[in-house]
Amino acid sequence: MEFGVNFFPVIDPAEKTATAYYDETLRLIELAESLGFTQAQTVEHYFSGYGGYCPDPITLLTAAAARTTRIRLATGACVPAFTHPVKLAGKLAMLDHLSHGRLDVGFGRAFLPTEFEAFGVSMDESRARFAEGVEAIRRLWTEENLVWEGSFHRFGPVTMLPRPYQDPHPPIYIASASSAESCAAAGTAGHHLQVVPSVTSAEQLAAMLVHYRRAWDAAGHDPAARRIQIKFTCYVDADRETAYQQGEFYERNYVDHMAKAVAPLAERGSADYPGYEKFLEKARNYDFRAALGANKVLAGNPSDVLAQIETVREQFGTDLSFSLQFNPGAMEYGRAAAAMELFAAEVMPAFQDDAPQDGTGAEIRCRAALAVPA
């Protein structure tokens, strides 16, 4: 089973400068490679302490590519709605070459009202813009003399240079927060999946994965090629209570920043984001111990975290890879590095010889629990 590292900067500038955050992130990516983590990823967000230090994940990952040789580099995720597909396809293809084929591309719809307003994009168009952008980029990577006549962009004939390093293109991941429909569409298209259990219920996530696997199989894609990545913040320390204290502090920081970022849409709603108003309610009522008990965050000593990972795999399938954030908020470099080292030494070895499975056993249990038809 594979473990990667995730970088989502939930930081106010008064706590840590952008320069310090980038320097520490690049050091942690180098450390992750040396410890055997297989992927490093980062987000695309703007303006606020909720991710705003990373408006361009491609730039940060390009710097990481120059300092590493083996670890894969992933957008988790970049937003097609905010960039012309020709521009985004070209930037990603360049990074694929600069990393010598180590790029994984995660695409997301975005969900923060201030970002859509700044780009002059309606949130009610987000689903359609997302689908069009991903398909346009895929075709730009693989076709010559492409003529694109979409609802939001028209161009061509054009032949993109450079073509991607990987043939036919970098692996595509679709980030889905709560939509079974989006997961099914990703499975049908043969795209991989990124999910975040902290923003949905276990039952809803299980249903999402059932729909994804079923759509993948129905489309005739190779089950062995499928990748499902699940993302967690992870607080691990030799002393359980120390890990819990860190987790409670930084998870509250994360939730408070998210609540501020989502409040404008939570108050008015959007057809493309049904149930969005519940994000704000959940944020206001957040309880770390309840989240820990529901395995929405990983925390404790190495044995505790190992047991949580085993439980997550029992719930959602053995075909998962894990993307872990060890440095949330303004946590100092030394603490994050020590947690990564402890995890690599005492948790990862338990899964080294655990080959990925197709998740079928978990899917059967999920269908039974949720009454999802076979």
TrEMBL record:
- Residue ranges crossing the lipid bilayer per the database entry: none
Q: Which InterPro entries match?
A: Bact_Lucif_Oxidored (IPR050766), Luciferase-like_dom (IPR011251), Luciferase-like_sf (IPR036661)
Classification via SUPFAM superfamilies? Bacterial luciferase-like
Pfam families per the record?
Answer: Bac_luciferase
Q: Does the keyword Oxidoreductase apply?
A: yes
> Sorted alphabetically, which keywords does the UniProt record give?
Monooxygenase, Oxidoreductase
The superkingdom listed in its UniProt entry is: Bacteria
Task: From the UniProt record, list the coiled-coil ranges.
Answer: none
Boundaries of each Luciferase-like domain copy? 1-316
In its UniProt entry, what is this protein called?
Answer: LLM class flavin-dependent oxidoreductase
Please name the source species: Streptomyces cynarae
